[in-house]
Design goal:
The complex is a heterodimer of chains A (298) and B (316). With 298 residues, chain A is an alpha/beta fold. Helices cover 36% and strands 21% of the residues of chain A. Chain A folds into two domains: 163 residues, 3-Layer(aba) Sandwich (Rossmann fold); 90 residues, P-loop containing nucleotide triphosphate hydrolases (Rossmann fold). The two termini of chain A are 31 Å apart.
Chain lengths: 298, 316
């Protein structure tokens, strides 16, 4: 298991927590945010600050805080129903948090529309695969790539040269991403006809096409056999090599421990542990959450 | 029953039925596009059509053309027709956009239940048609004689007129253009993505509101073009002209498989043809009876329409 690259103590991040005000792009949809940055400058990329989310009487997330540094692979783990996916949904604008704040590069994410959050540089995949079932694999990725294009309605309606140039570039970029995740030979196939593993990879390619700085993977290994998990592990590392920070929800402890630099453990909506894999694995609260504690030993 | 009539006039009935069907098809696209993306029947679409027909007449009016004018020289006619089509398409498109912004978007923002949309749709439809009705004193308005129907060619007893050819060709061009737009461009891909999975599309960076506006705009453009074709074919318009035609177009959309663009065309042409065959067979009073019997019979066997699949599934 590789050591995390930089071990910055949590408190040292205080300076990064409130970064110098970056000029807020006038229209986040227009994609003025630079897509990628050099990894591992150690600055906080994403800050989840006292995030709470209530569904009726259920507190699905209870003042959860953690922060991600650029270029790391960060794990979000916990037993079923711990609030991991809820956390993703709050992050990507699907749910509106009842309390707390999420900041991405110092800009508040909470309260923005989904497509604006995508434009800021956050992309995700889904636990239950959500492709556009009747589009080809290539078209699915191109929808993601389209998020970075600027052709207006007018130029698309009248098919101006610029539109065709962007269309060609988007196609090439999407093919490259299909090759990157290893399913380029299926580019022309309607996505509902792809195998389960191919669909999972296609979701990753589609998310990458939006040129994210932060990629959120929601249980990407669900239903995979050990060989598939190994190759996924390699893929996640390769994604980081491209300068993309990865936030990973995963059940499989071996996968999490093998790939994550740091992780946070949730249980019943609360953070119960945080740290490098070796620390977290031996934390008695984590062991108890995963294995259960005999009543007499509690 | 006049089987001999039908058999004898089969050719001419088919030619004029195809032209009528082409108008229904262009009109039906607006219903089917909006339904594909929003699962909403935009009842105000019939008024979008009606407004387009007045827009063309008013434009020609600026040039002093009315129903009593003489036919201008051929070169001018082309200019007038093109101008009328462009203005009607633009005004219908804008009307459709305004309906979406005023009647539907605020409801979407507040997560209104589907029934609320149905009521505002009917409301928007009534507001527009009554406003035009009051402004025009509920009179009908005639079309300047820009195109004198003349036989373009004849096969047996079938005289195909220049107008029928114009309508069918224009519809064909618009349909092929729209099909390519939906299947081969970024915006078309966005429309299909929203139709297949609205929330996922938004998470992949598709601006849903923009896609919805675009869909209304395209539907409006097509309705405006259909309105001018209708003017030439029928010769008049009125504040309630959209209503009965809208029902036929909506029927066409459902018959072809609502949400499916090619279905709208197939449905439109079937309705256009069977209206004509039906009136020949049973007399023109039975026109609508025939249309709807065809609809019911087809839906009995194909409940989701002839090409029943979602807009999202329409592929190149």
């Amino acid at each position: 298991m590789s050591e995390p690259h930089i071990e910055t103590p949590e408190w040292e991040d205080e300076t990064a927590r409130r970064p110098v005000d970056e000029p807020i792009p006038a229209d986040p949809v227009a994609g003025t945010v630079p897509a990628q940055r050099a990894p591992s400058d150690g600055q906080a990329l994403l800050e989840v600050d006292n995030l709470s989310l209530r569904f009726g009487g259920v507190l699905a997330l209870d003042r959860v805080s953690f922060s991600l540094r650029e270029g790391e692979i960060f794990g979000l783990i916990g037993p079923n129903g711990a609030g991991k996916t809820t956390c993703f949904n709050a992050l990507t604008g699907v749910y509106k948090p009842s309390g707390g704040e999420i900041r991405f590069r110092g800009q508040v994410v909470t309260g923005r529309k989904k497509h604006q959050i995508t434009a800021m540089g956050i992309a995700r995949t889904f636990q239950n695969i959500r492709l556009f079932p009747e589009m080809t694999a290539l078209e699915n990725v191109m929808v993601g790539a389209d998020a970075r294009h600027k052709t207006s309605v007018i130029s698309a309606l009248f098919r101006l040269p610029r539109h065709w140039r962007e269309e060609r570039e988007g196609r090439e970029k999407s093919m490259e991403l299909l090759r990157f995740v290893g399913i380029d030979h299926r580019a022309g196939e309607v996505s509902r006809n792809l195998s389960y593993g191919e669909q999972r990879r296609l979701e990753i390619a589609r998310a990458l096409a939006t040129e994210p700085t932060l990629l959120c993977l929601d249980e990407p290994a669900a239903g995979f056999n050990p060989a598939e998990k190994d190759s996924l592990l390699k893929l996640i590392r390769a994604i980081r090599e491209r300068g993309i920070t990865v936030l990973l929800i995963e059940h499989d402890m071996r996968l999490v421990m093998g790939v994550c630099d740091r992780l946070v453990v949730l249980e019943f909506g609360k953070k119960i542990a945080e740290g490098v894999p070796a620390e977290v694995r031996d934390d008695p609260r984590v062991v108890a959450a995963y294995l259960g504690v005999p009543a007499d030993a509690a | 029953m006049h089987f001999d009539d039908l058999a004898h006039n089969w050719g001419p009935l088919t030619a004029s039925g195809l032209a009528q069907g082409a108008i229904y098809a262009l009109f039906a696209l607006g219903y089917t596009l909006v339904y594909g993306v929003l699962r909403l029947i935009n009842f105000a679409h019939s008024e979008v059509f009606m407004v387009g027909s007045y827009a063309a007449l008013i434009t020609w009016g600026f040039f002093g053309l009315d129903e009593n004018s003489a036919t201008p020289p051929a070169t001018e006619v082309i200019g007038y027709v093109v101008l009328g089509v462009l203005v009607a398409a633009a005004i219908s498109g804008i009307t459709a956009l305004v309906v979406e912004l005023v009647a539907y978007r605020p409801l979407r923002r507040h997560n209104a239940p589907p029934l609320a949309f149905l009521i505002t749709a009917i409301g928007a439809s009534l507001v527009i048609s009554e406003a035009v009705g009051v402004a025009t004193h509920r009179n009908q308005r005639g079309v300047p004689p820009l195109i004198q129907p003349a036989d373009a060619f004849t096969i047996g007893n079938t005289h195909v007129t220049n107008l029928e050819i114009l309508i069918i060709l224009l519809t064909l061009v618009m349909m092929v253009g729209l099909d390519r737009f939906i299947n081969r461009t970024r915006l078309g891909r966005g429309i299909r993505a929203v139709a297949q999975s609205p929330d996922t599309a938004a998470l992949m960076g598709v601006n849903k509101d923009r896609v919805i506006s675009l869909v209304f705009l395209i539907g409006g453009l097509m309705a405006g073009i259909a309105a001018v074709m209708y003017l030439f074919k029928i010769g008049t318009t009125r504040y309630d002209a959209g209503f009965s035609l809208g029902i036929a177009a909506f029927t066409a959309a459902v018959l072809g498989g609502i949400g499916n663009l090619r279905g709208a065309v197939v449905g439109g042409i079937i309705i256009g043809l069977f209206e004509n065959y039906g009136s020949a067979l049973f007399g023109s009073n039975y026109r609508n009876v025939v249309t709807f019997v065809v609809l019911i019979v087809i839906l009995m066997f194909r409940p989701s329409g002839i090409l029943g699949e979602a807009l999202g599934r329409a592929r190149a």
